């Protein structure tokens, strides 16, 4: 029998270059110590990936389960750093976590590298606003090497932004900051979503306006004229099922409208999910409805959204939207959570369910998309 550990390092490294998924690379590194040396030195060119679905937290368990669409299997991994904490994913692979200790962390779930973020006490939440710990942050985003004239150091290449509090304010920080920096904006009601397009951080505000975030000036710059298409009813507050998502796609700015139509008078289960995608024309300052997504798939949830080019190589479907929808009933003293996980085909409007994990998600823990990365 061949002794794989005796292969020269150059050949081992050559074999690794043919692996396209992180799941395969991690399995490759487990063969023997000499193969693991390639993993430890990170001498592997990471190809574009597709997100894994991290399932809900099981109370009193230090492990989390991840569904791979690529391998159509469930991986279980020790991740005590996320136990009992609400998590938000990001397109850069990092998680933002918050626990009932009110400590906020940045966590890579695959390398288990963790960074402390500024405390909740540095957020400008107005006096008198009563929030449960898991409601403090509405959404979280992690961007790699965002535009900034005052931060050219590669050690500071991560920017964390959060939408927080009932007023949906926006703040940001970098690892090592002692406090969150709030964006000053008195002309808009609040923020809905944020993305990074063409070296600009772009945010969608309540009532549909688009703004560019100036992190150096702690301010916003209006993009003239952009509002969601007129037939989208924007009456706030919306149902949790009806949402707008910003998506960066190969340098373009897309928006996805998720509409859950239901006859709530008859049954809360009498529902159908519909998605409509739009592309923003920066020259004409208007949204254009898209008839299809071409050779792309979109992943959306209330934690982050992203577009994947040519997803078929990972056993995902092009021209589809993979979604995680949730609805919370806030009846004191209980929190009832309903979660819907599936894939929506743009051409025919049909949805197919995907595994969502535990039947009854915890009030602070829902399935989320997690982009795997080793960096």
From TrEMBL:
Residues 66-344 form the KIB1-4 beta-propeller domain. InterPro entries: F-box-like_dom_sf, F-box_BR-signaling, F-box_dom, KIB1-4_b-propeller. Residues 4-40 form the F-box domain. It holds the Pfam family F-box-like. Gene3D superfamilies: 1.20.1280.50. Coiled coil: none annotated. This is F-box protein. It comes from Rehmannia glutinosa.
